[in-house]
Amino acid sequence: MNKSYDIEIPYLLTGPARGRITVSDPRLYGLDNHFIRLDLYPLIAPSHMRRHYGWWDIPLKHVKQESTNFIFDFSKRTIRLDNQRIPVEIMQGWRGPIEEDGYCMLHVSLWDKSEEPPHMMEMKSQPVVIATHGLSLPLKQINIPVTDRCNLKCTMCPRQNTKDLIEADIPDDALQSLLVSGRELSGILLQGLGEPLLYKNIFNVIKQLKREMHGNSEVGLTTNATMLNEDTGRKLLDSGLDFLYFSVDAATKPTYETIRVGADFDAVVKNISRCVEYRSTFARNKPRLMMNFVITQQNLHEIAAFAGLARDLGIENVTFSHCLGAQSGKMEIVDKNELFSQFGSALGIAGENGFNIYLPPLEKATAERCFFMERAVVLAQGDVVPCHAMAPGYSTEERRRIFGNVRKKSLEGIWDQEDFKEFRYQVLKGDFPVECTGCECKAYLVP
Predict the structure, then answer these.
(1) Exposure winner among 14, 27, 28, 327, fewest CB in 10 A?
(2) Alpha-carbon distance 174 to 205, whole Å?
(3) How far apart are CA 412 and CA 393, in angstroms?
(4) What residues contact residue 104 under an 8 Å CB cut-off, 6+ apart?
(5) pLDDT above 60 (res 447)
(6) For the segment 188-220, what is each residue's pLDDT rounded down to a tens digit?
(7) Could you give the count of Cα atoms lying within 13 Å of 135 in the half-sphere of its Cβ?
């Protein structure tokens, strides 16, 4: 769909930034009852009130030509429209409590307020990084790799392409170090390269984190749902977990069981359905339930059907992602025409049924960017690497950059090392270190 407006703003915001609003529909020029809203959320653990920078409303009565230049001054929380006879300063319409630097999503929407309540006509989103205090962003999210053991042999999993993976649970000293470090973070993913429900103490770990972390933080995990029997499902949903991903990757039994070797499609669907039903029995909105689909040529034709399966199960969030080849870092090539068609059908199903669907770009981004520089990935034996693309199976040892081990030094201490800071500086500036060569996570803007 062609948008009637667009906005240009720098990706990296280190101070007052110049931008441009382009309105391609002349019928919108100067309208009193329409406005463009800029809405800013952190990428890690956003929420409507508690973790939301706020919004700015630009009345279209001040936009009287195709292009309008502006200056966005985040430190003052103002937008100044420049190409007016008298510059117009837009104050923040609502200011949330969040003050931190970091990765954000800027949602830009067109609104009509001729009737009450005002209604949104169009919306687009783009990533930005707020770095008003320098290019060393605060650490906001980690993974705690409770286990690297798994009960499946999925065809696209990097586990099948590495010999240096130790199939074991996280050592106790590494776990305790991470539990202490995690208290002040915004998000924790209890995930390594294994199935987290194989870790026998998983429920107690979740409960401890939820007791000790601040109220705006989130804890979640991804499961293949094979072990979610009635007892396990109830314990998981009662643990305080904030979000739960189900990795499914297909909509039919033959395709699913060909990809997820060792799993039973009917049993997995039943397990997910039971979790949805149990949560609804208590009228809860947590954990948020999501279903994941990694796109390959093998399952491409089931993208729309997968959205239909999520609808039938009562899942409120569905995510699709490209499959990155193990160790090569390259995205698996699929039929683009079929992909476009399937995406369109999936969006239609989501729109008709009121659930959220997240689709990756169809093509490579022209600018390479990485979204991991406010996160740290910890491997099961305690080594700290910058992102999951440097974990075993995704990278060779030559491409892996290890900055320390949490069994020897605190995660905070590792994060503040000069060599780790310098690595993050380079990535944020787009001057990627040699270890990032060939990684297409940054080419596909995968958050």
Answers:
(1) 27
(2) 13
(3) 26
(4) 40, 41, 42, 43, 53, 127, 128, 129, 130
(5) no
(6) 999 988 999 999 999 999 999 999 998 889 999
(7) 15
